[in-house]
Design goal:
By secondary structure, the protein is an alpha/beta fold. Helix content is 38%, strand content 20%. It has one domain (8-210): 3-Layer(aba) Sandwich (Rossmann fold), CATH 3.40.50. A seven-stranded mixed sheet has the order 1-3-4-2-5-6-7, with helices on both faces. The longest helix is centred in the last third of the chain and has 19 residues, at 156-174. The two termini are 15 Å apart.
Protein backbone atom coordinates (compact mmCIF):
# COMPACT_ATOMS: atom_id res chain seq x y z
CA UNK A 1 0.00 0.00 0.00
CA UNK A 2 1.45 3.33 -0.98
CA UNK A 3 -0.83 5.38 1.26
CA UNK A 4 0.32 6.16 4.79
CA UNK A 5 -3.26 5.56 5.94
CA UNK A 6 -4.52 2.64 3.82
CA UNK A 7 -7.86 2.33 5.62
CA UNK A 8 -8.91 5.94 5.05
CA UNK A 9 -10.68 5.29 1.75
CA UNK A 10 -12.57 2.31 3.15
CA UNK A 11 -13.64 4.29 6.21
CA UNK A 12 -14.98 7.08 4.03
CA UNK A 13 -17.16 4.63 2.09
CA UNK A 14 -18.41 2.71 5.14
CA UNK A 15 -22.13 1.95 5.00
CA UNK A 16 -24.67 0.39 7.35
CA UNK A 17 -25.12 -3.32 6.64
CA UNK A 18 -27.48 -4.91 9.18
CA UNK A 19 -28.57 -4.92 12.83
CA UNK A 20 -28.76 -8.20 14.72
CA UNK A 21 -30.46 -8.92 18.03
CA UNK A 22 -28.96 -12.42 18.13
CA UNK A 23 -25.82 -14.08 16.79
CA UNK A 24 -27.76 -16.16 14.28
CA UNK A 25 -28.95 -12.91 12.66
CA UNK A 26 -25.38 -11.71 11.98
CA UNK A 27 -23.95 -11.57 8.44
CA UNK A 28 -22.07 -14.56 7.04
CA UNK A 29 -19.10 -15.35 9.27
CA UNK A 30 -16.45 -14.76 6.62
CA UNK A 31 -13.81 -12.15 5.92
CA UNK A 32 -12.59 -9.91 8.73
CA UNK A 33 -14.38 -7.68 11.21
CA UNK A 34 -13.37 -5.41 14.09
CA UNK A 35 -15.79 -4.87 16.96
CA UNK A 36 -16.20 -1.73 19.07
CA UNK A 37 -17.16 -2.23 22.71
CA UNK A 38 -17.58 0.06 25.68
CA UNK A 39 -19.55 0.84 28.75
CA UNK A 40 -22.63 2.95 28.09
CA UNK A 41 -21.77 6.63 27.59
CA UNK A 42 -18.06 5.90 27.03
CA UNK A 43 -18.22 7.67 23.66
CA UNK A 44 -18.34 4.54 21.53
CA UNK A 45 -20.69 5.81 18.83
CA UNK A 46 -18.88 9.16 18.60
CA UNK A 47 -15.55 7.37 18.20
CA UNK A 48 -16.92 5.08 15.49
CA UNK A 49 -18.40 8.03 13.58
CA UNK A 50 -15.15 10.00 13.83
CA UNK A 51 -13.00 7.10 12.65
CA UNK A 52 -15.21 6.51 9.62
CA UNK A 53 -15.85 10.18 8.76
CA UNK A 54 -19.52 9.26 8.64
CA UNK A 55 -22.61 9.37 10.78
CA UNK A 56 -22.84 5.59 11.00
CA UNK A 57 -23.65 5.07 14.65
CA UNK A 58 -26.44 6.88 16.44
CA UNK A 59 -25.16 9.11 19.22
CA UNK A 60 -27.36 10.16 22.09
CA UNK A 61 -27.10 11.94 25.40
CA UNK A 62 -29.08 9.00 26.77
CA UNK A 63 -26.71 6.07 27.44
CA UNK A 64 -27.68 2.58 26.41
CA UNK A 65 -29.14 3.45 23.00
CA UNK A 66 -27.09 0.82 21.16
CA UNK A 67 -29.19 -2.26 21.84
CA UNK A 68 -28.21 -4.40 18.85
CA UNK A 69 -25.13 -5.71 17.10
CA UNK A 70 -24.79 -3.15 14.31
CA UNK A 71 -22.66 -4.13 11.30
CA UNK A 72 -21.06 -1.65 8.89
CA UNK A 73 -19.56 -2.64 5.57
CA UNK A 74 -16.12 -1.37 4.53
CA UNK A 75 -15.80 -3.67 1.49
CA UNK A 76 -16.83 -7.21 0.53
CA UNK A 77 -14.35 -8.74 3.01
CA UNK A 78 -14.19 -6.22 5.86
CA UNK A 79 -16.68 -4.93 8.44
CA UNK A 80 -16.90 -2.89 11.63
CA UNK A 81 -19.31 -3.91 14.40
CA UNK A 82 -20.86 -1.62 17.01
CA UNK A 83 -21.59 -3.79 20.05
CA UNK A 84 -24.35 -3.00 22.59
CA UNK A 85 -23.39 -0.46 25.24
CA UNK A 86 -23.09 -2.12 28.61
CA UNK A 87 -23.85 -1.20 32.19
CA UNK A 88 -26.46 1.56 32.02
CA UNK A 89 -28.44 1.38 35.28
CA UNK A 90 -31.82 2.43 33.85
CA UNK A 91 -31.98 -0.43 31.34
CA UNK A 92 -34.36 -3.16 32.58
CA UNK A 93 -32.65 -6.24 34.01
CA UNK A 94 -34.07 -8.66 31.38
CA UNK A 95 -32.71 -6.45 28.59
CA UNK A 96 -29.30 -6.28 30.29
CA UNK A 97 -29.28 -10.06 30.52
CA UNK A 98 -30.25 -10.33 26.84
CA UNK A 99 -27.40 -8.01 25.81
CA UNK A 100 -24.85 -9.86 27.93
CA UNK A 101 -25.95 -13.26 26.65
CA UNK A 102 -25.69 -12.30 22.99
CA UNK A 103 -22.56 -10.20 23.45
CA UNK A 104 -20.84 -13.23 25.00
CA UNK A 105 -22.19 -15.48 22.24
CA UNK A 106 -20.87 -13.12 19.58
CA UNK A 107 -17.42 -12.78 21.15
CA UNK A 108 -17.14 -16.51 21.77
CA UNK A 109 -18.25 -17.78 18.38
CA UNK A 110 -17.43 -15.24 15.68
CA UNK A 111 -14.61 -16.63 13.51
CA UNK A 112 -14.23 -13.44 11.46
CA UNK A 113 -13.58 -11.26 14.51
CA UNK A 114 -9.94 -10.17 14.28
CA UNK A 115 -9.72 -7.43 16.89
CA UNK A 116 -11.62 -5.51 19.55
CA UNK A 117 -11.53 -1.76 20.18
CA UNK A 118 -12.49 -0.97 23.77
CA UNK A 119 -13.62 2.55 24.65
CA UNK A 120 -12.99 3.82 28.18
CA UNK A 121 -14.03 7.28 29.36
CA UNK A 122 -10.69 8.75 30.42
CA UNK A 123 -12.34 10.12 33.57
CA UNK A 124 -13.62 6.65 34.59
CA UNK A 125 -11.23 4.01 33.22
CA UNK A 126 -11.02 0.33 34.13
CA UNK A 127 -14.64 -0.18 35.14
CA UNK A 128 -15.96 -3.66 35.90
CA UNK A 129 -16.98 -4.05 32.25
CA UNK A 130 -13.53 -2.92 31.05
CA UNK A 131 -11.87 -5.45 33.33
CA UNK A 132 -14.18 -8.18 32.00
CA UNK A 133 -13.17 -7.36 28.44
CA UNK A 134 -9.48 -7.39 29.35
CA UNK A 135 -9.95 -10.78 31.02
CA UNK A 136 -11.67 -12.10 27.90
CA UNK A 137 -9.03 -10.71 25.57
CA UNK A 138 -6.22 -12.28 27.56
CA UNK A 139 -8.00 -15.65 27.79
CA UNK A 140 -8.95 -15.74 24.10
CA UNK A 141 -5.81 -14.15 22.66
CA UNK A 142 -7.94 -11.60 20.81
CA UNK A 143 -6.05 -8.40 19.92
CA UNK A 144 -7.36 -5.48 21.99
CA UNK A 145 -6.83 -1.75 21.45
CA UNK A 146 -8.07 0.75 24.05
CA UNK A 147 -9.23 4.26 23.26
CA UNK A 148 -9.23 6.54 26.31
CA UNK A 149 -12.10 8.64 25.01
CA UNK A 150 -13.09 12.21 25.92
CA UNK A 151 -9.42 13.12 26.39
CA UNK A 152 -10.38 16.73 25.69
CA UNK A 153 -12.22 16.78 29.04
CA UNK A 154 -8.83 16.81 30.81
CA UNK A 155 -5.78 19.03 30.43
CA UNK A 156 -3.08 17.54 28.22
CA UNK A 157 -0.88 16.79 31.24
CA UNK A 158 -3.68 15.13 33.19
CA UNK A 159 -4.66 13.07 30.15
CA UNK A 160 -1.07 11.86 29.65
CA UNK A 161 -0.79 10.97 33.34
CA UNK A 162 -4.02 8.95 33.16
CA UNK A 163 -2.74 7.17 30.05
CA UNK A 164 0.44 6.16 31.85
CA UNK A 165 -1.40 5.05 34.98
CA UNK A 166 -3.92 2.93 33.05
CA UNK A 167 -1.14 1.39 30.94
CA UNK A 168 0.80 0.51 34.10
CA UNK A 169 -2.27 -1.02 35.75
CA UNK A 170 -3.03 -3.13 32.70
CA UNK A 171 0.56 -4.39 32.53
CA UNK A 172 0.49 -5.19 36.24
CA UNK A 173 -2.83 -7.04 36.16
CA UNK A 174 -2.92 -8.57 32.67
CA UNK A 175 0.65 -8.54 31.36
CA UNK A 176 2.60 -6.55 28.76
CA UNK A 177 0.97 -7.82 25.59
CA UNK A 178 -2.77 -7.95 26.31
CA UNK A 179 -3.64 -4.51 24.90
CA UNK A 180 -2.38 -1.36 23.23
CA UNK A 181 -3.76 1.97 24.43
CA UNK A 182 -4.00 5.58 23.29
CA UNK A 183 -5.68 8.92 23.99
CA UNK A 184 -8.71 9.77 21.85
CA UNK A 185 -11.06 12.72 21.44
CA UNK A 186 -13.84 12.71 18.85
CA UNK A 187 -14.53 16.50 18.94
CA UNK A 188 -10.82 17.36 18.67
CA UNK A 189 -10.09 14.45 16.29
CA UNK A 190 -7.21 13.50 18.58
CA UNK A 191 -5.73 10.05 17.97
CA UNK A 192 -7.83 9.33 14.87
CA UNK A 193 -5.01 8.30 12.54
CA UNK A 194 -3.32 6.22 15.23
CA UNK A 195 -6.54 4.26 15.77
CA UNK A 196 -7.17 3.90 12.04
CA UNK A 197 -3.73 2.37 11.56
CA UNK A 198 -4.53 -0.25 14.20
CA UNK A 199 -7.70 -1.09 12.26
CA UNK A 200 -5.70 -1.23 9.02
CA UNK A 201 -3.24 -3.69 10.53
CA UNK A 202 -5.96 -5.98 11.90
CA UNK A 203 -7.92 -5.87 8.64
CA UNK A 204 -4.92 -6.93 6.57
CA UNK A 205 -4.30 -3.58 4.87
CA UNK A 206 -0.67 -3.16 5.95
CA UNK A 207 0.64 -6.51 4.69
CA UNK A 208 1.96 -5.08 1.42
CA UNK A 209 3.99 -2.45 3.27
CA UNK A 210 5.43 -5.09 5.60
CA UNK A 211 6.42 -7.35 2.74
CA UNK A 212 8.00 -4.46 0.82
CA UNK A 213 9.96 -3.49 3.91
CA UNK A 214 11.23 -7.03 4.40
CA UNK A 215 12.26 -7.30 0.76
CA UNK A 216 14.09 -3.98 0.96
Amino acid sequence: MSSKNPILGLCQQATFLISAAKVDQCPDDSGLEVAFAGRSNAGKSSALNTLTHANLARTSKTPGRTQLLNFFRLDDERRLVDLPGYGYAKVPIPLKQHWQKHLEAYLGSRESLCGLVLMMDIRHPLTEFDNMMLDWSKASGMPLHILLTKADKLTFGAAKNTLLKVRQEIRKSWGDDVASIQLFSAPKRQGVEEAQLVLAQWLGLLEDETEEGEEA
